[in-house]
């Protein structure tokens, strides 16, 4: 029994010694320093002001919301008005000069360039003896004026017969005699009205053709003025897509008189533009559609075929009421060659003679009518906007022979 108690005591002593060794080794390890009593907290910097990004934040006196003066609504708040955009004035619509009697008003301008023909004939016919040499001179005068061979022979034969019957000739009688014979050549019974009123439904369709440099696009614009002056509404088709300036020019003419212009991309299909112009004219209820075509050279077969295509495409909407051929009156006999080729392609119904106030010979009127069998319907007598006039045979002949 004593041995057991002794063993237990020894065990307890051994365990106590071991525990003291463990606690001693732990105490030898250095513990981390205790945290300070009050932590050191750094305040965030103040918000920088405009332009103060590089400066040290400043201590500012801060006010409470009670100390801040707020608006009470008694004073209105100034609101900045938006800037006033000045609107551009609309394009001023011009009122074209009436067409009635326009050629008579321009007669002085016409007579300045054409009097040589009339005066030359009157001088020759006033000779006391009209021998064969004199009649040959009369023929030469007419041929030089681009009247043409066949019309010249007709006129000379008519004059010779009338002079024989008349006998004694006073200046007034000679002037009357020459006037009558020239009127026969020019023709007073031809229908010279530009047809823009179709029998079935609107719009009337007019196609304008011609060679480069004849004034075709300008004539189309001036014709729009003539129609507007007569109370018609007009749509313009800029089917000359090979020249951007042509479409711009035509649109400018249209804007002056309030006519709408249909145009396509540069180099586009002319037939497509013409088709769209007629379609637009129908939808707008316009009276007339004027189609300006490219000023193609009459010697290029492919281009002439394309002109025929434009005509066929337009006629899918409605038949053409007019095909006007624009000729430069100063080109003389070369103009007749152009007229012949165009007539084969698009069936010309009327002629417009431009630059008749310049160096043109008046006889071209007779020659081109004989060549095509269609009348001269309009003549250009200057560069002014209203210098395109309906052709009146009496006023034209009076300008040729003078007062």
UniProtKB/TrEMBL annotation:
Part of the signal recognition particle protein translocation system, which is composed of SRP and FtsY. Residues 26-80 are annotated as: Disordered. It is found in: Cell membrane; Cytoplasm. InterPro entries: AAA+_ATPase, P-loop_NTPase, Signal_recog_particl_SRP54_hlx, SR_rcpt_FtsY, SRP/SRP_N, SRP54_GTPase_dom, SRP54_N_sf. SMART domains: AAA, SRP54, SRP54_N. PROSITE patterns: SRP54. Residues 49-66 have a biased composition (Basic and acidic residues). Involved in targeting and insertion of nascent membrane proteins into the cytoplasmic membrane. Acts as a receptor for the complex formed by the signal recognition particle (SRP) and the ribosome-nascent chain (RNC). SUPFAM superfamilies: Domain of the SRP/SRP receptor G-proteins, P-loop containing nucleoside triphosphate hydrolases. Its main location: membrane. Keywords: Cell membrane, Cytoplasm, GTP-binding, Hydrolase, Membrane, Nucleotide-binding, Receptor. Residues 375-388 form the SRP54-type proteins GTP-binding domain. Signal peptide: none annotated. This is Signal recognition particle receptor FtsY. The lineage of its organism: Bacteria, Bacillati, Actinomycetota, Actinomycetes, Kitasatosporales. GTP binds at residues 210-217, 292-296, 354-357. Gene3D superfamilies: P-loop containing nucleotide triphosphate hydrolases, Signal recognition particle SRP54, nucleotide-binding domain. Belongs to the GTP-binding SRP family. FtsY subfamily.
């Amino acid at each position: 029994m004593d041995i057991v108690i002794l063993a237990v005591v020894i065990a307890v002593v051994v365990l106590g010694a071991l525990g003291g060794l463990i606690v001693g080794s732990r105490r030898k390890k250095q513990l981390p320093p205790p945290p300070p009593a009050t932590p050191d907290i750094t305040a965030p910097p103040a918000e920088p002001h405009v332009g103060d990004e590089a400066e040290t934040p400043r201590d500012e006196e801060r006010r409470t919301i009670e100390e801040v003066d707020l608006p009470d609504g008694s004073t209105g708040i100034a609101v900045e008005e938006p800037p006033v955009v000045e609107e551009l004035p609309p394009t001023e619509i011009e009122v074209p000069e009436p067409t009635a009697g326009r050629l008579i008003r321009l007669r002085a301008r016409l007579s300045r360039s054409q009097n040589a023909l009339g005066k030359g004939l009157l001088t020759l016919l006033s000779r006391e003896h009209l021998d064969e040499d004199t009649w040959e001179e009369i023929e030469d005068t007419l041929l030089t004026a681009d009247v043409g061979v066949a019309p010249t022979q007709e006129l000379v034969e008519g004059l010779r017969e009338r002079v024989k019957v008349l006998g004694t000739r006073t200046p007034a009688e000679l002037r009357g005699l020459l006037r009558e014979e020239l009127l026969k050549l020019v023709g007073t019974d031809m229908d010279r009205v530009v047809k823009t009123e179709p029998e079935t439904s609107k719009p009337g369709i007019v196609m304008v053709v011609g060679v480069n440099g004849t004034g075709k696009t300008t004539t189309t614009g001036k014709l729009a003025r003539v129609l507007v002056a007569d109370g018609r509404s007009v749509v313009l088709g800029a089917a000359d897509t090979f020249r951007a300036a042509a479409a711009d020019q035509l649109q400018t003419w249209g804007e002056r008189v309030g006519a709408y212009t249909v145009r396509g991309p540069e180099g586009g299909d002319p037939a497509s533009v013409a088709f769209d112009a007629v379609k637009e004219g129908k939808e707008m209820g316009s009276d007339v559609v004027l189609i300006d075509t490219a000023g193609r050279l009459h010697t290029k077969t492919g281009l002439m075929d394309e002109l025929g295509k434009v005509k066929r495409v337009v006629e899918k909407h409605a038949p053409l009421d007019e095909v006007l051929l624009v000729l430069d009156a100063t080109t003389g006999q070369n103009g007749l060659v152009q007229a012949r080729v165009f007539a084969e392609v698009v069936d010309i119904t009327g002629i417009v003679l431009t630059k008749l106030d310049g160096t043109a010979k008046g006889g071209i009127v007779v020659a081109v009518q004989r060549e095509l069998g269609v009348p001269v319907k309009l003549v250009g007598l200057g560069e002014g906007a209203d210098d395109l006039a309906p052709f009146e045979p009496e006023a034209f002949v009076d300008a040729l022979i003078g007062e």
